[in-house]
Amino acid sequence: TSLSTPKKKKRDDGMREHVTGCARSEGYYKIDKKDKLKYLNNSRAFAEEPPADTQVRLGPGCSPWRSEQRRLLSSFTGSCDSDLLKFNQLKFRKKKLKFCKSHIHDWGLFAMEPIAADEMVIEYVGQNIRQVIADMREKRYEDEGIGSSYMFRVDHDTIIDATKCGNFARFINHSCNPNCYAKVITVESQKKIVIYSKQHINVNEEITYDYKFPIEDVKIPCLCGSENCRGTLN
């Protein structure tokens, strides 16, 4: 126990050299202030300072990460990209919905939680196909006995087919006086269809929107039962 401590050696740069070859085996020891300053000055010389125009003065209790987060948030909202923020929130916190029998037609989608006005309810998910493929699939679905149409037009060239690859959004029924509406938004240069709430939606209330089918000679009857019902979907 009375072993003599080895003499502390210093390297050419002034820093202490570990006699045993490992810092952990030598226990705790104090470093002179002069050595600390010398080390700090050397490390600062190699560090790259940010340009003067990107330096931000932070107040007490602020961190660069929080400042950058607030800057990005303000830039999103300032550039009218609130839809993108809402879409990200919808992905991480999906609305509680369920599908069950509807008094309008067959199956319907119902809210299991209160939904405020102008909120994203659900994304219309399916396969992105072209108009030519959509016409071929529509004839094939008729031959297979699938009477309901689950195709949603995004633009002139793109259609979302949710017949065999979709989510609960395909169960939403049409209404001439709907509580929701569909909107096309762009996320990472890709167009998506999202169902928004027009008004406050209560628990167990059915979610509906206007299909806005084009006018055709062969009429499809509307069964929404609202006061201003047009009588047909198209």
From TrEMBL:
CC annotations in GO: Set1C/COMPASS complex
Predominant location: nucleus
The keyword Nucleotidyltransferase is assigned to this record: no
Keywords assigned by UniProt, alphabetized: Chromatin regulator, Methyltransferase, Nucleus, RNA-binding, S-adenosyl-L-methionine, Transcription, Transcription regulation, Transferase
Domain Post-SET: 218-234
Gene3D superfamilies: SET domain
Example GO biological process: methylation
Pfam families in the cross-refs: N-SET (PF11764), SET (PF00856)
InterPro entries: COMPASS_Set1_N-SET, Post-SET_dom, Set1-like, SET_dom, SET_dom_sf, SET_SETD1A/B
Every SET domain range: 95-212
Keyword S-adenosyl-L-methionine attached: yes
Domain of life: Eukaryota
Subcellular location: Nucleus
Name the UniProt record assigns to this protein: SET1B methyltransferase
